[in-house]
Each structure stands twice: as C-alpha cells, then as structure tokens.
C-alpha cells in the first residue's frame, strides 16, 4: 500500500500556495497557525493535522486524496481507496495519541490528589512535633524538608508526562524542566522508561513526606552521629527511585 510522502505533500502545498499568490503567513492566518508551521509542511518536516486536511485541501483547490498523495494528477479509484486507508490510519493514530494524552493527564491528577493527602499528613505530623516542642528549624530537618517540597512541586506539577521525540532518537542522560535538573550516569531518558521513572519517584516522594517527620522525631534529634542522616536518606532514596524506574522499564520491555 502506498505511503504518504511528506516531501511530496510539502512540495504540492508550496506549489499551490504560490499559484494562489499567498505568502506562508497569509496561508497560515487562514487556519490560525504560525507561518513556521506552513514552512515545516513545505519542507517535508511534518504533515497537517487530520482536522486540517479538508479545509486545507479546499483552500488549495485540491481533493484530500490529491493533497495526501502530493500530486495534482488525476486520482483513480484505487488511489482514492489507498488514501482513504491512509487517512483512516492517520485518524486512528491521532485518536490513540489523544487517548494516551488523556490517560497521562488522569494519572497526573490522581497523583496530585495523593500528594495533597500526603502533604496534609506531613503538616499534621509537623504540628504534633511542634506541640511536643521538637526543634523543627534545625538544619538537619528543614533542609531535607525543603528538598522534599521542591521535588514534590517539580515531579507532581512541573515535570512533563512525556519527553520530546529527540530523547527517543539520541542517548540523553540529563533532563531540565523549570527548577528540576537531573543527570543520571548510565541511564538514557526516553519515552519507554520515563513513565516508570515518574511513577517510582512520585511514590518515593509520597513515602518520604509521611515518614520523614517520624524519623526525625525518633532519631533526628540526637546530636552527633545522626546529624544530616535524614538529608542523606532523602537524597539517596530519590536517586535510587530514578534508577529503579529505569531498571523496571528495561525489564518490562525485555519480557
């Protein structure tokens, strides 16, 4: 079955645009797009979204079949059927992408709800410690607490649920997003292991939020050898969760 060739489609879009004496910006404005989007089409670096195919074909005085085949030539019935199949596959792909996006959004909101609950427990525990006159402003407690809150905000509200496609095309071991900076030696981030990494990291943050006040109450107030132990536990646990997520993803895709 014939495949859609983005370069042929782009060449045809450019040809028809010039025939109608339109600039890239003028064509883009008709569909509330940027001229860079039209430029990507014409260079064969992308295809119009499914919902734009019909209005774009009408604007360029083409049929959808001609647009997707990248040719103004007469399109026979076989080619029409071929395009219909391609269009059906494109629509199915678009629907699947939207479904996955909705699933990721629902999962994100679910864990944000868990975070609110964990923060509520964390606040109640700290209130109890305060009433028991436990010194909460010592460095060996507030530093890991601030670290946890920063990671909680980052992993639950800032960090994206999926990675750009270039992470799948190259071995990239670092990630930057807002206040978050991650660089894991020996691990390449990609869209296969990213959901596992997020899951394990979020679970670890939730657990640490609930456990850290209790740990400090029983162990952290001791002078000397326990100083900075809670900070070390937080840093090590978060680091291990990242590697654990990547390892779990690797095992899952080997099965």
Automatic annotation (TrEMBL):
Pfam families: HTH_3. Residues 13-67 form the HTH cro/C1-type domain. Gene3D superfamilies: lambda repressor-like DNA-binding domains (1.10.260.40). InterPro entries: Cro/C1-type_HTH, Lambda_DNA-bd_dom_sf. CDD domains: HTH_XRE (cd00093). The keyword DNA-binding applies. The chain crosses the membrane at residues 111-129, 141-159, 204-220, 226-246. This is Helix-turn-helix domain-containing protein. PROSITE patterns: HTH_CROC1. GO terms for molecular function: DNA binding. Keywords: DNA-binding, Membrane, Transmembrane, Transmembrane helix. It comes from the Bacteria.
């Amino acid at each position: 079955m014939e495949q859609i060739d983005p370069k042929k489609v782009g060449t045809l879009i450019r040809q028809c645009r010039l025939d109608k004496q339109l600039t890239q910006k003028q064509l883009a404005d008709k569909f509330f797009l940027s001229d860079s989007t039209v430029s990507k089409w014409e260079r064969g670096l992308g295809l119009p979204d499914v919902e734009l195919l019909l209005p774009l074909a009408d604007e360029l005085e083409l049929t959808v079949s001609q647009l997707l085949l990248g040719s103004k030539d007469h399109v026979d019935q076989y080619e029409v059927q071929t395009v219909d199949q391609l269009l059906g596959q494109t629509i199915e792909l678009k629907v699947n992408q939207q479904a996955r996006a909705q699933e990721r959004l629902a999962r994100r909101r679910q864990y944000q709800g868990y975070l609110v609950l964990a923060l509520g427990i964390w606040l109640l525990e700290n209130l109890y410690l305060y009433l028991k006159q436990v010194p909460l402003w010592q460095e060996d407690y507030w530093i890991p607490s601030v670290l946890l809150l920063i990671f909680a905000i980052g992993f639950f509200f800032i960090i994206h649920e999926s990675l750009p496609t270039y992470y799948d095309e190259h071995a990239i071991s670092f990630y930057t997003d807002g206040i978050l900076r991650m660089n894991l030696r020996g691990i390449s981030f990609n869209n296969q292991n990213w959901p596992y990494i997020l899951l394990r990291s979020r679970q670890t943050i939730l657990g640490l939020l609930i456990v850290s006040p209790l740990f400090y109450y029983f162990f952290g107030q001791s002078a000397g050898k326990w100083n900075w132990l809670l900070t070390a536990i937080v840093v090590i646990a978060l680091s291990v969760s990242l590697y654990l997520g990547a390892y779990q993803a690797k095992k899952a895709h080997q099965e």
